Amino acid sequence: MYYAVYHGKEFQIWRQPGGKTFRLSTSNKNLAEGDFKYDDYTKRYDKILTKEELSYLDEYFELTFLARYQGRIFQLASQSDEKLDKEDSWVRLYTDDLGFMKEYNLAEDSDVVEHTYGHVYYATAKIPVSKLEIIRERKNLPINSTV
Hints:
- The chain is mainly β.
- The chain has 2 domains: 2-62 and 138-146, no CATH class; 65-136, no CATH class.
- 7% of the residues lie in helices and 50% in strands.
- The protein is built from 2 helices and 12 strands.
- Strands 1, 2, 3, 4, 5, 6, 7, 8, 9, 10, 11 and 12 form a 12-stranded antiparallel beta sheet that branches.
- The mean pLDDT is 82.
C-alpha cells in the first residue's frame, strides 16, 4: 500500500496504470475537502489528485504488512482495516500450505485465491491481530515518482 504525507496528514494513495493518482479514505470527514466520491466497490472515498497537489507532498512511501504466526512469516491476503489497530482487527494469511492451515484450524472458512499451474494458494480463515505479530516494512520513495 502506498501512502503520502500532505500538510502533516498521512493518507493512502493509489496510482492507476496510465497515470491518475487517487487519495483514498474510509472516512466521510474528507468530503469537506472537496471532490471526494464514494466508491461502492471499494467502500472508500476517493479523490483524483492534480499534479499541483502532488507537488506539495511532504513524504511518499510504501508500507508492506506481513504477519508472524506460529513462528512463520506470511503475506496478508486481506485485513479488516487499514492500520490494523482496532481491538477487533483481523487478518487472513496468504499461504499454499494446506497442512499448516489444518494444523492451526485455519482451513475452515478459507478461500482459494489463486490457482496457477496446478499450485493452489489460499486465504486462511480470519485470525485476530492479538494472536499474531504484525510486521510493518516501510520503504521511502522519491516524491517525484507520484507525478
